[in-house]
Amino acid sequence: MPSPDRPTRAPRGGPGPWRAGVAALALAASGAWLVHDGTTGRNGPPLPPAPADSQTAGPSPTAKPAPTPKPAFPPLSASVPTRIRIPSIKVDAPVAGLGLTAARQLNTPPMDQRNLAGWYRDGTSPGAAGNALVVGHADNHTGPAVFYRLGLLRPGDTVEVTRKDRRTAVFTVDSVRVFPKRDFPDALVYGATERAELRMITCGGKFDRKTGYESNTVVFAHLSGVR
After folding, report:
1. CATH code of the domain in which 89 resides
2. What's the pLDDT tens digit per position in 1-30?
3. What's the per-residue H, E or C state across 131-166?
4. Which H or E run includes 22?
């Protein structure tokens, strides 16, 4: 895993200095933290459309997700996620728990398992109060992987996470953002919240064989139902 190309601070008001700091360090490292060996063509994973008032490929790293209504369901107790489904982009994949490497960077799902998402198991469970982090490869050397189409999600789309307690946490997408890896907004993505929220992260933007993808695509969603 590459070393971080910039210092990372723990978000203020997080779940504790160690946990918040580790999460930020692990996830906000180089843009290659998810994909070591991506596609070599000119076209990378699909990206969300740029805002109407933006002339760049993505919004400013300081932009905030759009305000969302208070979820109709209170947070659930903690339970390990086992599967994630995103009907609008045809994702249906098992979820594996991920820990940290000796360098305190997040481990990734095996590159040869294209249809596998990873959950930061030392963080929040999907459906519980706080930000649950789910990551996935955009591609590997053989083609598109589980989160290749993540940038096609739109506000109002739903994400279903099945948990070990046999409950399914249903999330509604609030916004989809693209952040250059050099300016990744740790506090915005990993900051504390009292609501049950979900962050899904993958690689995006241009790909360079030496440095990997230049950006990260991040989906912001909140708990809106339970089955």
Report:
1. 2.40.260.10
2. 333 232 233 333 333 322 333 344 344 443
3. EEEEECCCEECCEECCCCCHHHCCCCCEEEEEECCC
4. helix 17-27
